[in-house]
Amino acid sequence: MCFAMTVTARMSDKDTLTGMDVRLSDPDSRFVNARDVVIETGIDPDTLSRCLRRDFDLRSLEERLNASDKLQDANVTISSKGRLKVDVTPMVPVARVFEPGKPSYYINATGKRISAELRYHVDVPVLVGTFDSVYPARRLLPLLDYIATHPKAGAMVATVTQERDGNIILVPNIVGHVVNFGDTSRVSEKFALLRAFYRSVAPSKGWHTYDTIAVKWRGQVVATRRNKALPPLPLPTVEEQTGVLDINDNETVAKASDEENA
Q1: Cα angle 31-32-35, degrees, rounded to a multiple of 5
Q2: What Å distances lie between residue 33 and 58, 76, 82, 152, 241, CA to CA?
Q3: Are 97 and 104 in contact (CB under 8 A)?
Q4: Four-point Cα dihedral 73, 78, 83, 87, nearest 10
Q5: Is 241 helix (H, G, I), strand (E, B) or coil?
Q6: Residue range 189-248, pLDDT digits in tens
Q7: Is the distance from CB of 168 to CB of 160 less than 8 angstroms?
Q8: How far apart are CA 191 and CA 122, in angstroms?
Q9: SS3 of 210, please?
Q10: 76, 71, 75, 74: which is closest to 93 by C-alpha?
Q11: What are φ and ψ of residue 57, in 5° steps?
Q12: Has this prediction a pTM greater than 0.90?
């Protein structure tokens, strides 16, 4: 036993890491590649041969990778051959957020941010507005999740905006109007109401008749006309009220009275 323990201790002192293997769940990710992951680890692969296996802190490395804005999840292990295995899930954006006076960023399904860099662009819905602790960007996630998982809804929406009072406004791909969505409750019902409006009302009333379509109330659609000024009532003018015949008649009456007086 003493001999075995001594040999084991000596082997442990010499048991160093032999290299690093990085595996992405989505190799075609446009946000991160294997080289980016190595950079995020903060480890120089050439120095791993000097790192003792027993002293390597796997938990700290996982925490560092999970804190990265490019990764959604990370799992780090060491193989029996001393290889450092890094398995990561790249960031999957569901929207791009634009706030006045701030750099834009992407957001994933859990609300995690990733800075928008010029080297990549992903075609996702755009969020525009002012977001704070009362109305944060993550409150729109149920709506974004529905849009992402329902292609018909995704095809209808070009931009999602949030007003200061919290109202969510959809800018559809059908130009000429906006949709007041209210909040993220009853998302499926609201899209059903919007589709019904597009099928039954818009074709007959005209696609440019309304500038705002509100589906925020349960079971109803409220549309606001684009031309809010009512046309003037067709009241007759003075000339129309008098008319040529009336003038002639008055002149005739006046002449007849003069003749009678003469």
Answers
A1: 155
A2: 21, 17, 23, 31, 82
A3: yes
A4: -10
A5: helix
A6: 999 999 999 999 989 888 888 999 999 999 899 999 887 655 554 544 444 444 333 433
A7: yes
A8: 24
A9: strand
A10: 71
A11: -95, 95
A12: no
